[in-house]
Design goal:
This is L-aspartate dehydrogenase. The protein is an alpha/beta fold. The protein is 32% helix and 26% strand. The chain has a six-stranded parallel sheet with strand order 3-2-1-4-5-6, with helices on both faces. It has a five-stranded mixed sheet with strand order 8-9-7-10-11. A hairpin with a 4-residue loop joins strand 10 and strand 11. The relative contact order is 0.16.
Length: 266
């Protein structure tokens, strides 16, 4: 399998290092022209070719493309890739909190007869969430706890002094759409839950900075007429990016390992 990759930061580089567990035999990675990724990359289980334009990536004819470069990359690259017939795994799920972009992605997939795949990321239980949402209304409350350094560079810095915390502080309380759009590097889990059936506006979200946190904790409660459950996941932060859980990389790896292209009937 030939894997296309958009971005080569902490997620992309970690993912490439694990591809020996999959059927991937080559990677073409799209990075910014000034990126130092080619210099940072060391030989791994599969060869990596770096390109600097979408046209070059499409010309390489990857079997599937993984986006792991943020909301702006989803907006810039997912629609044209989908429209050209490429299946795309979207790691930056929170980008789809933008309702207009979500519709654009859906239309592009329809036009290209392709699929956009949303990995579970750092969360679990989405299959049950989808089943409950299909059967009726669900009420979902999510609480995300990360160490202060994971919130650096985010709007949390305007609410609380992250360098002076001595106890947990809830700096955001609102709905899922506001959380996903305001914290694009931290709240992809919120979008994954919302898209699985919780709904962006209906979902209640709290975001917390905790100086005692050793990793990233995701906890959510689901109430429906048919089932009630609570799930809490404590994940190790990525060595290169405290905002991202290692489980995010593993969930993308699983999507690659189980990927099957759509077979044409003609």
């Amino acid at each position: 399998m030939h894997l296309g990759l958009i971005g080569f930061g902490s997620i992309g580089s970690a993912l490439v290092g694990m591809l020996g567990q999959t059927q991937v035999t080559q990677v073409t990675a799209l990075v910014r022209p000034a990126s130092d990724a080619p210099q940072r990359h060391s030989a791994g289980p599969v060869p990596v070719a770096f390109v600097s334009s979408l046209d070059e990536l499409i010309a390489a004819r990857p079997d599937i493309v993984v986006e792991c470069a943020g909301h702006a990359a989803v907006a810039a690259y997912a629609p044209p890739l989908l429209q050209s017939g490429h299946d795309v795994i979207i790691a930056s799920v929170g980008a789809l909190a933008d309702a207009a972009l979500q519709k654009q992605v859906e239309r592009a997939a329809g036009a290209g007869k392709s699929r956009f795949i949303l990995p579970s990321g750092a969360i679990g239980g989405l299959d049950l969430m989808r089943a409950l949402a299909a059967a009726g209304d669900v009420d979902v409350a999510y609480r995300g706890i990360k160490p202060p350094k994971a919130w650096q560079g985010s709007p949390a810095e305007q609410v609380v002094d992250l360098n002076a915390l001595s106890r947990p502080v809830t700096f955001f309380s609102g709905n899922g759409r506001d959380a996903a759009l305001a914290y694009p590097k931290n709240a992809n889990v919120v979008a994954a839950l919302a898209l699985a059936g919780a709904g962006f506006e209906q979902m209640r979200v709290e975001l917390v900075a905790d100086p005692a946190a050793q990793g990233n904790q995701h906890s959510y409660q689901v109430h429906s007429p048919f089932c009630k459950y609570t799930m809490t996941i404590e994940a190790t932060g990525s060595p290169g990016n405290a905002r991202t859980s290692v489980t995010t990389v593993l969930s993308i790896l699983q999507e690659i390992a189980t990927y099957q292209p759509i077979q044409s009937s003609t």
